[in-house]
Amino acid sequence: MSLNTLKIAVLLTCHNRKEKTLDCLKSLFKQEGLKDKFTIDVFLVDDGSTDCTGETIKIKFPSVNVIQGDGKLYWNRGMHLAWKTAATTSDFDYYLWLNDDTFLERDAIKTLLIKNFDNGLVCGSTCSSINRQITYGGFKKKPDRLIEPNGEFQTCDYLNGNCVLISKKIFEIVGNLDPIFQHALGDFDYGLRAKKMGIALYVAPKFIGVCESHTEVPTWMSASVKIKERIKNLYSASSGCYPPEFFVYDKRHNGLMSACFHYFTIHLRVVAPFLWKN
């Protein structure tokens, strides 16, 4: 092992999708440059899985640090716990967020490390295995759109957390994900907080892997669902738009007026979803 070998802590959280999680880890441990250019320590939160995800990982990937959750952490708080555990375990050069439904190309981490950004976050874009269309990555505002990889590092305004490389230096400046968010919004919030601190956000020059898009209409937006169920879904942690948390996020990054306006329109939409075209 070279003295210049980089140490990377890979952070994941999972719940009841064992096969996907195992396939994700398989792709991770097949990375080009592993042990030569970089080493990885994996910190995976098994958030109360009932399909033996954690137990199976301990058998098939004994080097993975499996951290047990109580089933109430969801994505953001699970990732927060994984990061906190990693940061107190060893001294890493980089931290890599990785969704357990993201399957990496063999050169994914090498691609993210091409420029060794210490002063910027690097987001890896993913595509669909069906049509190779972009599914997750970095966004530009005005108009709001995902940025297609074009062979160069491009700056973005905010990002999805499916695959993001963060240096130790940035972690020391920005800190961990904000645990005020249970499931969604934590990745968007982190990128926007970093930008406010003068840290650039970059999109990697090519797709780093495959992750299918979740494009179905949320239950709380569906006119075919009874209003009681729509309200229940909206106020669930995994709704993607849990009102108390979305208000905090919106106020933090767009101001009080925007937060109040969207708080109203979210509830209007759950009451009268037919007013919007899905």
What are the salient characteristics of this protein?
34% helix; 9 helices; 4-stranded mixed sheet; 2 domains; 15 strands; Spore Coat Polysaccharide Biosynthesis Protein SpsA, Chain A; 8-stranded mixed sheet; 278 residues; single chain
Structural account:
With 278 residues, the chain is α/β, with parallel strands linked by helices. The protein folds into 2 domains: 6-210, Spore Coat Polysaccharide Biosynthesis Protein SpsA, Chain A; 219-275, no CATH class. Helix content is 34%, strand content 22%. The chain has helices spanning 18-28, 53-60, 74-89, 108-112, 168-174, 186-196, 227-234, 243-254, 256-271, and strands at 6-14, 38-47, 65-69, 94-98, 103-104, 120-123, 126-127, 134-136, 138-140, 145-146, 154-155, 158-159, 163-167, 200-203, 209-210. The strands form 3 sheets. An 8-stranded mixed beta sheet has the order 3-2-1-4-13-6-14-11, with helices on both faces. Strand 2, helix 2 and strand 3 (65-69) form a beta-alpha-beta unit. The N and C termini lie far apart (53 Å).
